[in-house]
Design goal:
By secondary structure, the chain is of the alpha/beta class. It has a domain of 157 residues: Uracil-DNA Glycosylase, subunit E (3-Layer(aba) Sandwich). It is built from eleven helices and six strands. It is elongated and about 75 Å long. The relative contact order is 0.12. About 9% of the residues have low confidence. The structure holds iron/sulfur cluster.
């Protein structure tokens, strides 16, 4: 066996150290060996359209949360206070999706808290649902500064986490909260009025749209159409549960 000189050895060690520093930057301090081998997508993750990353093989929501909660894939990772994964029943039939955490959510690490969250709880009660029965999350897991709209590059980085959440929860239906959330998920510029008119499809899951609770706080006149939306949503959900 040929002997390596000290400078070659130092170079090898430095490359190894760089590799592990990159892994820590991307995935935190925990290593997640891929069963299929690094650099090779599994058929399952390829079919689901996930990036080639270790979190894609998470088998449960808790595991997914642990793997992504230190994410720094977009600039919001630097400015957030808390990562907001989502809360609720991990086997919920219904998933509610907003656009991104606001100030209260960023501070508490939970989506839809504060006044908007209390209103959302009332909306759910109006259709005989409890917050604990559903799963609630956002497209972006970190707060955009000053509550600005999500940027396309942030959505591109973060939306695959939502896909994985939905794959693990397997809901029967999604209720999208607000214009931005609906336009972002459905990749459209259609108005909220138009989007509220029909049942859409998001990755094979029926999706309906209504107002964001924060918008209702600003404009109470939208409470009536929201009530009508959620009645339709409940009817659709009941139909799906009978199949
Ligand atoms: S918003 Fe999403 S992609 Fe950006 S840092 Fe947070 S978790 Fe990562």
């Amino acid at each position: 066996m040929s002997e390596q000189n000290p400078s070659e050895l130092q170079q090898v060690l430095s490359n190894i150290q760089k590799f592990f520093m990159q892994e820590v930057d991307l995935f935190g301090n925990v290593m997640y060996p891929s069963e299929s081998g690094k650099g090779k997508k599994t058929d399952e993750t390829a079919a689901a359209g996930y990036p080639q990353e270790p979190w894609a093989s998470a088998a449960a929501l808790d595991e997914l949360n642990a793997r992504i909660c230190e994410c720094q894939k977009c600039s919001l990772g630097v400015t957030r206070t808390k990562f907001v994964f989502g809360v609720g029943n991990p086997h919920a039939e219904i998933v509610l999706i907003g656009e991104a955490p606001g100030a209260d959510e960023d501070a508490q690490g939970e989506p839809f808290v504060g006044r908007a969250g209390q209103l959302l709880n009332k909306i759910l009660e109006a259709i005989h649902l409890k917050r604990e029965e559903v799963f609630i999350c956002n497209i972006l897991k970190c707060r955009p500064p000053n509550n600005r709209d999500p940027q396309p590059e942030e959505v591109e980085q973060c939306e695959p986490y939502l896909w994985k959440q939905l794959e693990l929860i397997k809901p029967k239906i999604i209720l999208c909260l607000g214009r931005i959330s609906a336009q972002t998920l459905l990749k459209t510029n259609d108005s909220l009025t138009k989007l509220r008119e029909k049942v859409h499809d998001y990755r094979g899951i029926p999706l309906m749209v209504t107002f964001h609770p924060a918008a209702l706080l600003r404009n109470p006149g939208w409470k009536r159409p929201t009530w009508e939306d959620v009645q339709k949503f409940r009817k659709k959900y009941d139909e799906l549960m009978q199949k």
